[in-house]
Fold:
Amino acid sequence: MHLPACLFAMEPKALLCALFSLLLLTPAVGARLGGSPEVVEKSPTPQNGLGRTPQMGWNSWNHFTCNINEQTIRQVADAMVDTGLAKLGYEYINIDDCWAAHDRDSQGNLVPNPSTFPSGMKALSDYVHGKGLKLGIYSDAGPRTCSQQMPGSLGHEEQDAKTIASWGIDYLKYDNCNDQGMSPQPSFSKMSRALLNSGRNIFFSICEWGIDNPATWAGGVGNSWRTAGDIKDEWGSMTSNADSNDVWASYARPGGWNDPDMLEVGNGGMTTEEYRSHFSIWALAKAPLLASCDIRSMSKETKEILSNQNVIAVNQDALGVQGHKVQKDGNQEVSKRTAEPMLGRMS
Structure:
């Protein structure tokens, strides 16, 4: 991806230039500007009614990996409120891999690791909810998660869905490590049904890294789906994920979003200008805005990037879906790609 020089400037007009230039650089979008409307077959959306705009919040993995505990999660929730990010729409505090004990209990239930989450997930959920935020958690479609440090949900989908619902969990990230050679579609569909039957509306974030083109089938299964491999805190990795994600632009819509992975903003591997570009690209692509740095101690520059209300507005504008202007036409959505709905709030 060759990005325009104005993307690295700091003035608001330069940011507008950057976003418009990125729109033109997107092959699937720029080729149709001013052309005929594209007819996109309407895909179903999950029955939970969630994800009307791309999800915003925080995830533990990119900065902390397995080095997580309940004190850290509580402090992150505090920081989300204290920094003002919560007021801007960052609502999910998501715990990734390694939160559970190595094995299930005698009844087959997942249990939090007693050394790192001694108070349990219900107490942590209550704390996060008390801050006006929502708590997310992690599992996997195999017998073990990617870290191998905790059980996955294979064969326990209904049980695990009811367990996390009883804890007040609001979000499930579901990986596909150790999949036993099974197709991800039935595996993820099974957990989707289990969540719908759990008695609680739980945002379902699918992560099979885009291997089986989930954008083509996950619209009625999950609220977001990964379109690329795990991001690294490097310019080349970030732009590669953005390019992989762009292929599926026409499949994104309220209720289901393409996910090129979490934000690396603030983790130290890129420059401030590169992070500003990263954030802008994710916003333009209608990608989830999930910070994954240590927001308890983030720099002034990182906070300014993550709290840029103009860029957030581009991401959260439900009228435009990655450059689409959507109009209903019977059972189809006629979408004419245009810069107007994406950039109209920048003036």
Summary: The two ends are 27 Å apart (CA to CA). The chain has twelve helices and twelve strands.
